[in-house]
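Repro:
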Amino acid sequence: MKRKKEKSESKTINKSKKKILTKTKTTSTNKPGDIENLENLESVQKLVHLLQVHQIELEHQNQELRITQEELEVSRNKYVNLFDFSPIPYFTLDPEGIIREVNLSASKLFGIDRNKLIGKQFITFVPVDDRDVFNSFLKTIFSLSVKHSCELKIINKDKHLFHVQLDGLKLDDTLELDLKCQVGLIDLTEFKRIEDSLKKSNE
């Protein structure tokens, strides 16, 4: 009787062991869906990391661009101030001789508000007998891209005649596609008057 009981008890124990082993196997092994979810999570984490790195790089680039833009703005303001408030009359002309920019000194010399000068042909202020000189001057500036000078006469709003020297140079601006040249005007009227007086006195 004792042996039968022992056998039955051992069988029960063995069955219990098998159940426990079966449970541990099923719980320890991952399902295919779980592995796929884990891989997807790792991919998302890598992507988030790459995006964060890219965002930091973009922020650095934007900061550099802002600094460059501020430096360009400061440089442009300096140029504008020098151009606008120079005691020498300055014009910016296109290849057709149209006034694109003009400073305060030039506006004062011509007796015309500079907003009204912009868009006008410079040659309209040049007497007919000097227009060939001006056309040749303008053509040389844009064709040779070197500083060029000429002497001619101009007439302002009040029909006052000035003897002037024009000094022109083509502008190389990488930010603008339109061709332009800058022309400085030196008033030689007083010099010519003294020169004429000396000639007359020597005759």
